[in-house]
Amino acid sequence: CSGYLKHIIDHYANPADFTLFFQADAGDHMQWGYLSLVMRALEQNTLATAFVHLNYPRLIASMSPCRAEVFRQVFGRPPKKMLGSYCCAQFLVSRERILANPLERYEHMQNMLFGDSPPECHDIPGHSTHCLMFEVYWHVLFGEEDDLPERAENPALQLFLRIRDLENESYL
Question: pTM (2 decimals)?
Fold first, then answer.
């Protein structure tokens, strides 16, 4: 997450029309075919969606005192409901959505990485607690609801991007 924030801060004055954020192990968390759809839409200048989460494992919507406090420190409000998102923070975001937040918010988030975790958090040795919390906040940061709808049910996505999350479904 530090790389994401550094990129946004360094390019805030002139961000690209769309920015794609990936982790080092990108292919472990997403379907290449879905990324191909998004890239084709970009190439053809037909993408009319401001935020697209690219991963497919869906996280269970949850809330903890730690997650709520870090959220409050970032957004200045408590979460409206459980935070739901896809795993592992890989997404596309538009210039407009990046610029909808003041530069100071991104700088604050970056500074949080070097500070102590709130007392509500129980740090995991070797991991940034803040980065673990930010992983389920990126969509909120970029203008989506606290509980990001599943792709198939997300009215913010163009129809061709509303694929079902088959790996996450159960008929039990």
Answer: 0.88
